[in-house]
């Protein structure tokens, strides 16, 4: 198949999932065309089946806001026509689903039928999308999609609640990891660099947005380190970073915390971690937690959104109510205080991650693509 993928090319989970999906499809022999405004950060391997088409927005001074959606639609028309794509798969509804709809209509007027699949990732539905200024367009674009998927049962339920006029059937296809990427024989990163005296190593990876409640990560860590010698690694960057640095100083924890900024392949640092902290207000799935589990790192998380579909309470880690720092710290200490308990949780985390290996999830997308193409043939 010739597949066009539209996504945000950044470090966010939706871009990572879209890029890894495209890479895996290309490896299986499909031709995959990424159509984005810059090279996706994880698009790091060379394959004759992978193509990249840049969407460039002109900065004409009349426009206070650049019309990205229109140039994306035009680019989609161009790529579909000249690369003779079979279908488009757009990740994150805003504005990708409506841009795909527009491209589909333009192409229809030229006698070309291009189906498009929309994958909902979370904040496009739970935060940004339900804003009344987006709602009618999102509802329309989702209803007009040839197929719609989302990454968890929880997100599916939330979509129908937030968008009562969505009539389209939504299929849940969970996020995934490529377990092979986590099978390192030799550690690339040495644990003693960050935990020189055998301290426990806790880690948090996110885009440092408010929804992640990174301040809770710091407060949980502060409680843990008072009981167990430990260090904390922060990976990622975002708007909450200054507030986090300030809190770090207030709690006097800076000497036990190392911020590494944005990292393309977090599996290398995850490989030396003992515990992952995910304190989010909401997560449609929590890909970062799954990546940790694939690296044999148990997860202390909140129980919101789709996280319970990923992290199993008392098995791969523990879950607490949002903001319950005491409970999260208590659970973290329980896992970290004893080598035997820790290694049991590490083993379980890895077993749980195996359920989400790409080998299990890729066929679900391929089957959906075939279904959509068969419908196209019949129409
Ligand atoms: O977490 C973010 O803010 C980034 C966002 C994105 O669009 O990349 O992540 C969402 O999609 C991920 C991939 O499907 C999910 O694993 C995250 O849980 C989801 N984030 C939220 O729901 C807050």
What labels describe this entry?
alpha/beta, single chain, elongated, 7-stranded parallel beta sheet, binds ligand GMT, Rossmann fold, 6-stranded parallel beta sheet, 379 residues
Any overview of this molecule?
With 379 residues, this protein is α/β, with parallel strands linked by helices. The protein has 2 domains: 2-176 and 358-378, Rossmann fold (3-Layer(aba) Sandwich), CATH 3.40.50; 179-354, 3-Layer(aba) Sandwich (Rossmann fold), CATH 3.40.50. Helix content is 42%, strand content 16%. The protein has helices at 13-27, 68-83, 93-108, 123-126, 135-144, 153-162, 191-194, 214-227, 241-250, 267-270, 287-294, 325-336, 339-354, 358-378, and strands spanning 2-6, 31-36, 50-54, 87-91, 116-120, 147-150, 170-172, 200-205, 230-235, 257-261, 275-278, 299-302, 317-320. Strands 3-2-1-4-5-6-7 form a 7-stranded parallel β-sheet, sandwiched between helices. The longest helix has 21 residues, at 358-378. The radius of gyration is 21 Å and the shape is elongated. The two termini are 19 Å apart. Ligand GMT binds at residues 12-14, 17, 92, 121-123, 126, 151, 175, 207, 209, 211, 282-287.
Q: What are the low-pLDDT stretches, counting only 5+ consecutive residues below 50?
A: none
What is the annotated CATH architecture of the largest domain?
3-Layer(aba) Sandwich
Major sheet attributes: 7 strands, parallel
Helix content: 40-55%
Distance between the termini: 19 Å
């Amino acid at each position: 198949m010739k597949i066009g993928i539209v996504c945000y090319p950044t470090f966010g989970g939706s871009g990572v999932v879209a890029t890894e999906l495209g890479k895996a499809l290309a490896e299986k022999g499909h031709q995959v065309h990424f159509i984005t405004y810059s090279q996706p950060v994880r698009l790091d391997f060379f394959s004759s089946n992978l193509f990249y088409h840049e969407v460039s927005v002109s900065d004409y001074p009349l426009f206070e806001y650049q019309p990205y959606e229109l140039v994306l639609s035009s680019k989609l028309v161009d790529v579909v026509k000249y690369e003779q794509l079979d279908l488009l798969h757009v990740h994150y509804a805003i504005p990708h689903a409506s841009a795909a709809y527009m491209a589909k209509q333009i192409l229809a007027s030229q006698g070309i039928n291009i189906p498009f699949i929309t994958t909902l990732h979370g904040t496009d539905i739970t935060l940004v999308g339900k804003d009344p200024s987006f709602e009618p367009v999102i509802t329309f674009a989702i209803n007009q999609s040839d197929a719609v998927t989302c990454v968890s049962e929880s997100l599916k339920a939330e979509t129908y609640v937030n968008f009562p006029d969505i009539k389209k059937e939504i299929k849940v296809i969970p996020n995934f990891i490529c377990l092979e990427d986590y099978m390192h024989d030799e550690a690339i990163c040495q644990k003693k660099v960050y935990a020189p005296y055998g301290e426990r190593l806790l880690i948090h990876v996110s885009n440092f947005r408010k929804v992640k409640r990174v301040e809770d990560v710091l407060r949980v860590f502060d409680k843990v380190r008072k009981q167990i010698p430990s260090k904390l690694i922060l990976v990622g960057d975002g708007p909450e970073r200054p507030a986090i640095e300030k809190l770090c100083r207030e709690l006097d924890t800076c000497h036990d915390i190392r911020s590494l900024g944005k990292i393309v392949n977090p599996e290398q640092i995850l490989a030396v971690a003992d515990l992952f902290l995910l304190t989010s207000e909401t997560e449609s799935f929590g890909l970062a937690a799954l990546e940790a589990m694939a690296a044999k790192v148990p997860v202390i998380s909140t129980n919101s959104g789709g996280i319970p579909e990923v992290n199993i309470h008392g098995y791969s880690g523990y879950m607490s109510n949002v903001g319950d720092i005491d409970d999260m710290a208590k659970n973290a200490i329980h896992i970290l205080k004893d080598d035997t308990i820790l290694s049991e949780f590490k083993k379980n985390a890895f077993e749980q991650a195996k359920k989400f290996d790409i080998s299990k999830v890729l066929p679900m997308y391929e089957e959906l693509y075939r279904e959509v193409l068969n419908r196209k043939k019949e129409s």
